[in-house]
Amino acid sequence: MANSVKSLRLSAVGAALAFFVVMILFVFGFNRVDEYEVAVKRNPVTGSVAATPFGQGLYHSILRAWTNFPLREVQYPDEGRSERLSALTSDQLEIEVDAAYRYRLQPDSAVHLYMTVGSFNAVRAFVYNTYRSAIRDAIAEIEASNILSTERAGIAGRIEQLMEERLSPRGIAVTDFFVREILPPETIRQAIESKLAREQQVESEVFQTEVVIEVANQARAEAAGIRDAQDIIAESLAGVTGQRYLYWRYLEMLGKIGEGSNNMVIAPTEGGIPLFFTPNSSN
After folding, report:
1. C-beta of residue 164 within 8 angstroms of C-beta of residue 174
2. How far is CA 136 from CA 27, 139, 140, 189, 231, in A?
3. What is the Cα–Cα distance from 223 to 206, expressed in whole angstroms?
4. In degrees, to the nearest 5, what angle opens at C-alpha 107 toward C-alphas 105 and 110?
5. How confident is the model at residue 217 (pLDDT cuts 50, 70, 90)?
6. Looking at residue 283, what is its pLDDT?
7. Rounded Cα–Cα distance for residues 214 and 208 (Å)
8. Cα dist. 43→31, 33, 48, 162 in Å?
9. In degrees, to the nearest 5, what angle opens at C-alpha 36 toward C-alphas 34 and 39?
10. Which of 5, 7, 137, 151 could potentially form a cystine with 146 if both were Cys, beta carbons 3.0 to 4.6 Å apart?
């Protein structure tokens, strides 16, 4: 009887222990891969790595080590923030760049990334170091005096290009890059602002000069027109024809004067001395 009770107790303990082991294996013996992830499988004993990544599913971890990689877009810094970094221009002046970036892992590149870089945390550090290096290299290609003028618009594109050249072979796609602010040294900023102010002043002076020249050209054209008109009139009054025209105009004016009262008539003479008289309407 005692042996029977002892056997039952041992059986109950064994069952409980087995259930506990099963629960541990169920909780900790599987790797879950969500729909936005891929996983790389590695044998911890032999060190071999599966040639292809694993998609969504639940996989056991007995003699298997799993490394998950997210496929969602990752932004750095997160929550819409940006990071300010310093870099030297080609003329060795320090420039501050306030920027942020986004990237995404290609699903088929997960095994290659694991073999060459490591876990996702290692990949994230690799992308960040590439970003810092790209900023330094892009800023080193330009002079500080061009930061706020001709070269500013191309800085973001150049940094993104350098990142893509270094990350694309690894299976990492740069989806976006933001340069929110570029801060040159104070001396350069003041010099650039003074230069822009001088250029605006020169443009204003050139415009005013063009206005003065245009007004002068208009006045010159008007004077030339008056001169041409006077030449034409003088030419038309010369000779016998001109004298007849003047005489006719003289007679015409005498007729108009005669129609009025208290008018003074100026009569030319051969001696060149005009005669002044007032017609008497009673005569």
Report:
1. yes
2. 47, 5, 6, 20, 76
3. 26
4. 80
5. confident
6. 46
7. 10
8. 14, 17, 5, 36
9. 65
10. 151
For residues 114 and 227, which has the higher predicted lDDT (pLDDT)?
A: 114
* Residue 127 CB-density burial (10 A; 0-12 exposed, 13-18 middle, 19+ buried): buried
Mean pLDDT for 209-236 is: 77
Q: What predicted TM-score, i.e. pTM, was given to this entire model?
A: 0.59
Residue type, 177: F
Q: Which residue has the tokens 């013996």?
A: 29
Q: Which residue has the tokens 């990492």?
A: 172
Under 8 Å between Cβ of 184 and 151:
no
* Burial of residue 139, with CB atoms counted within 10 A of its CB: 0-12 exposed, 13-18 middle, 19 or more buried: buried
* C-beta separation of 140 from 95 below 8 A: no
**b/e code 95-118 from CB counts within 10 Å (16+ = b):** bebebbbebebbeebbbebbeebe
Given phi > 0 = left and psi -120 to 50 = alpha, else beta, which region is 154? alpha
**Would you say residue 251 has pLDDT above 80?**
no
Residue 277 has pLDDT above 60, yes or no: no
Spell out the long-range contacts of 212-219 with Cβ–Cβ below 8 A and sequence spacing 24 or more.
none
The size of the chain, in residues, is 283
Q: Tens digits of per-residue pLDDT, 49-88?
A: 999 999 999 998 888 999 999 999 999 998 878 888 888 8
